[in-house]
Write a structure and sequence with these properties.
Blueprint lengths: L5 H5 L4 H8 L14 H8 L12 H12 L3 H13 L45 H8 L10 H18 L7 H17 L10 H8 L23 H15 L11 H8 L14
Length: 278
């Protein structure tokens, strides 16, 4: 499958860019994807092996840098957690995107913007849920671009909504950071690092669909941002959005590059202990 207008676009681009951004194909039999729309999109665009398997940290660093201008510091932490998510191959040197579907490790979490919670859906926590995503996107009704205050409100509403559903909702300091990071990533990569202004259309395209359908909104005009998204910029964005919605910060938690690194890597960001059973 080729995206609309990809032939015309390819005539205007260097070969490598045309192959990766304007070319897209869905996963076939045996291919795997993750609950993260960004990683799934990079795989279907060819920045990661199309089968979504045997990812190493260097592969992830190159893919996130070339496809989204996301820094090696973030990619290394996520990649390290990915290696821990492959228990059948410990000590691991690679992992598959499908390993990232594990509940609360390393990137899946309750109160997601586009997936049902683990307890609510009999463990089916990795498939796209259009009802949930539309409820989050509805906060941008009438807006052409996202903003930090509105993105923060949409994120906090998901926490409040899921927290009221039942006692099995999990929201520790680690999930606190992961849920803010989910929004920080999309408004940074699809928009800018300062104001969080991403065209709503880009957000819609990059999220709206199962992990087998999502893509980068290249045809719509998106290009990788010129300023890099990394742990430092994500920390600033997390702080800005928390200040905008007034959510109470867990006692003892600070917004630093190190606490983000701990949370993204599968560790408790306050006490620094690994919260994953190997």
């Amino acid at each position: 499958m080729v995206l609309p207008h990809s032939t015309a676009l390819s005539l205007l681009l260097p070969l490598s860019a045309a192959q990766n951004f304007s070319a897209w194909s869905p996963p076939g039999p045996g291919d795997v994807r993750s609950p993260c729309p960004g990683l799934s999109s990079l795989t279907s665009h060819g920045f990661i092996s199309h089968n979504g398997k045997i990812l190493t940290i260097p592969i992830l660093i190159n893919a996130l840098n070339d496809g989204m201008n996301v820094g090696a510091d973030f990619a290394t932490v996520i990649g390290g957690a990915g290696l821990l998510s492959a228990p059948a191959n410990l000590p691991s040197t690679s992992f598959d995107l499908g390993n990232l579907n594990e509940h609360n490790f390393p990137i899946e979490h309750d109160a997601s913007l586009n997936r049902a919670d683990n307890y609510e859906n009999n463990g089916e926590n990795h498939s796209f849920n259009r009802t949930i995503f539309k409820s989050a996107l509805a906060y941008y009704d009438g807006m052409n671009a996202t903003s930090i205050p509105v993105a923060a409100e949409a994120k906090y509403n998901r926490v409040i909504t899921e927290g009221k559903r039942g006692p099995k909702f999990i929201y520790t300091p680690q999930q606190f950071i992961l849920s803010y990071e989910e929004t920080a990533i999309y408004i940074s990569v699809m928009g800018d690092l300062i104001y969080g202004a991403a065209p709503v259309e880009y957000v819609h395209v990059s999220f709206d669909g199962s992990c087998y359908q999502v893509r980068l909104p290249y045809v719509e005009g998106w290009r990788p941002p010129t300023k890099q998204t990394n742990l430092l910029t994500l920390g600033d964005m997390v702080f800005s959005r928390n200040a905008a919605n007034g959510e109470v910060i867990p006692e003892g938690l600070e917004f630093t590059t190190n606490t983000l690194k701990l949370a993204f890597g599968g560790y408790d960001p306050i006490i620094g202990l690994l919260v994953h059973v190997l």
